[in-house]
Amino acid sequence: MEHEPNRNVLTRLIVFTMVTLFGQSANIAGCRIEELGVKVPSRQRIPDKYMTSSTRLNKNYQAFRGRIGIKRIGSLADAWCSSEADSAPYIQVYFEFLTKVKVIESEGVDVDGNNMWVRSYAVSTSNDSVGGWMYHGSSVAQLWANTDIHGTNVTLNDSWAHFIRIHPKQHIGKWTCMRIALYGCQNALPAVVFIFIVTAGFMCLFRRYRARRKAETKQSALAETNNGIKSIVIYEDPPPYESQTVSLHFGNDINLGREIPSEMPAFTESNKVIRNMLLPFKDDRT
Ligand SMILES: *[C@@H]1O[C@H](CO)[C@@H](O)[C@H](O)[C@H]1NC(C)=O
Ligand SMILES: *[C@@H]1O[C@H](CO)[C@@H](O)[C@H](O)[C@H]1NC(C)=O
Ligand SMILES: *[C@@H]1O[C@H](CO)[C@@H](O)[C@H](O)[C@H]1NC(C)=O
């Protein structure tokens, strides 16, 4: 009886860790291809500020307008165009999570009746955007892309990175203009978050176990009082570090293993004491 809660906690911790680890490795090994949030509309969206470029034609043609599926809004254009003076243009996307881009989809654009598109481009990736740009093939390798303004896919075999740059090499039309969508997979759970979750999970289980033990002790003390045996139980507030974990709820898991019956006793003057003792952390129930 005394050892059961211990095993219970340990088992749950192990299961929790295994499930999390499995999810992690499945994500990396599987590389389930999805649109990464450049295209609109999409399941997710890369913030505008994460799309940048070497130059822009003017403020209506900024990098974040270069999303496939985007519509003109007022003077805001539906493509990214580089400045005419830019001899080495590029559009860059930053990913918060380590990302493997497998497919680049590109489109041209109709600017006031003139179709413009990018015939070829080079691709580079980096983790810090400052140095260490790794080119797909080489900096002069041209990946052949559009032959008209309609969508064309180019498949890559690059490694994981936080930044990707597409460097248009040849273009048709007056300006270098394009819209893009990126497909690939993301390592959505950075190591820091992973360690945090495991630690938090452990603290939650530990706290719950302590709370249960406390409630049990007090219940028996109360029973003794009711039997006429004088026994004073002084309720102690939990130490601050314990109540700090209260907000970390993991879905339905929070009620697993709770000794408290699902049907709460009615709140009356006579059972108030018991209720408070069963629920030492009242904010847990709200
Ligand atoms: C970025 O970092 C990851 C993980 O450390 C590494 O595998 C990858 O090769 C790096 N990418 C680049 C472009 O340096
Ligand atoms: C992509 O991978 C294939 C085989 O793994 C290799 O032959 C090819 O050179 C790679 N392409 C680039 C541009 O790195
Ligand atoms: C490009 O590839 C993506 C992902 O596989 C796909 O959803 C999209 O329809 C493709 N686009 C074109 C023009 O083939």
Automatic annotation (TrEMBL):
<keyword id="KW-0645">Protease</keyword>
<feature type="signal peptide">
    <location>
        <begin position="1"/>
        <end position="25"/>
    </location>
</feature>
<keyword id="KW-0812">Transmembrane</keyword>
<dbReference type="GO" id="GO:0004180">
    <property type="term" value="F:carboxypeptidase activity"/>
</dbReference>
<dbReference type="InterPro" id="IPR008979">
    <property type="entry name" value="Galactose-bd-like_sf"/>
</dbReference>
<keyword id="KW-0121">Carboxypeptidase</keyword>
<dbReference type="InterPro" id="IPR000421">
    <property type="entry name" value="FA58C"/>
</dbReference>
<protein>
    <submittedName>
        <fullName>Carboxypeptidase X1</fullName>
    </submittedName>
</protein>
<keyword id="KW-0378">Hydrolase</keyword>
<dbReference type="Pfam" id="PF00754">
    <property type="entry name" value="F5_F8_type_C"/>
</dbReference>
<keyword id="KW-1133">Transmembrane helix</keyword>
<feature type="transmembrane region" description="Helical">
    <location>
        <begin position="188"/>
        <end position="206"/>
    </location>
</feature>
<keyword id="KW-0472">Membrane</keyword>
<feature type="domain" description="F5/8 type C">
    <location>
        <begin position="31"/>
        <end position="185"/>
    </location>
</feature>
<keyword id="KW-0732">Signal</keyword>
